[in-house]
Write a structure and sequence with these properties.
By secondary structure, this protein is mainly beta. Helices cover about 5% and strands about 35% of the residues. The strands form eight sheets. Strands 4-13-12-7-10-9 form a six-stranded mixed sheet. Strands 5-11-8 form a three-stranded antiparallel sheet, with no helix packed on it. The protein has a two-stranded antiparallel ribbon with strand order 1-2.
């Protein structure tokens, strides 16, 4: 209760002016409250002789703040996905919280700079949450009212894979909506660097994966070139060799002009019986 008491004689005008400055405030944002709160403000003015006015009553409706979900647990460093490799989890430690709501009804994961062949996979299990990936928008949408804990469980299973040969970096973002339709801001991006797998290299001018040509190989990942078969050896198999074992020793009657070149037959009237000859 607030009492305004005059120290001496104060006019009704001054008392009225003072009463008009009275304000109501509620500490915090009433998180955890879902219903409005009604306050009755009663004002009574009394004369110094003890004569009081009739009661004046005013209702104040206090509405709680509808807090947005907050997304945390997003990896802070770039990740690497090797083309041709297994699907890679995007944010296995994602943690969504909401101060005034225990449930979500919607969540999305979107690929930025998506390429044809990009896919997001996931596992909803028995959570009651539905999930669908739309390749046209490069977005997976989860729907259905369920606890935040269950949504976190599902979102941690979202993984990226692709059949694309593009090495352009991909970025992934998360958005969550609680059961009161309050949406979070977009999460910080999870960035994936895309690199070439074994048997291939990255053409940095075209931002594309290229298979090692016949006669060359690449056993390492994330490279920008291939290794030539050693002098006296050749590769006559398909392109995309991932180990030096794909390089065979040159057979009698053939030669190379330099390491990694295709085999050439000896000219008529020449002879070379040595296996593995690099040149004649």
């Amino acid at each position: 209760m607030l009492d305004l008491v005059a120290d001496g004689i104060v006019s009704a005008h001054d008392f009225t002016a003072a009463l008009r400055t009275v304000k109501f405030n509620s500490p915090g944002d009433m998180h955890g409250k879902t219903a409005d709160r009604t306050l009755n403000v009663v004002i009574k003015a009394c004369h110094k002789a003890g004569v009081c006015s009739d009661l004046a009553e005013q209702c104040v409706n206090v509405k709680p703040v509808n807090d947005s979900p907050v997304i945390a647990g997003i990896p802070s460093t770039d990740r690497t996905f090797t083309l041709g490799g297994d699907a890679e989890l995007i944010a296995s430690s994602i943690a969504i919280t909401d101060k005034d709501n225990n449930n979500l009804k919607l969540a999305t994961v979107t690929i930025e700079a998506a390429q044809v062949g990009d896919v997001l996979t996931f596992d909803v299990g028995a959570t009651g949450i539905s999930g669908a990936y739309d390749a046209a928008t490069a977005k997976v949408t989860f729907a259905g009212t369920a606890s935040i804990e269950l949504y976190n469980q599902v979102l941690r299973t979202v993984a990226f894979s692709t059949t694309s040969t593009s090495t352009l970096m991909r970025a992934f973002s998360f958005i969550a909506t609680d059961s009161n339709s309050k949406q979070s801001g977009s999460s910080a991006n999870v960035d994936f660097s895309i690199c070439a797998g074994a048997g291939s290299f990255e053409n940095t001018l075209q931002n594309a994966l290229v298979a090692c040509p016949t006669g060359k190989y690449q056993a390492s990942v994330c490279t920008t070139s291939c290794e030539a078969c050693a002098a006296g050896k050749h590769g006559d198999g398909p392109a995309g060799a991932s180990a030096e074992s794909h390089c065979d020793t040159c057979s009698p009657g053939t030669y190379q002009t330099s390491a990694g070149d295709a085999l050439l037959l000896l000219k008529e009237g020449t002879l070379d019986a040595k296996i593995g000859r690099a040149h004649v």
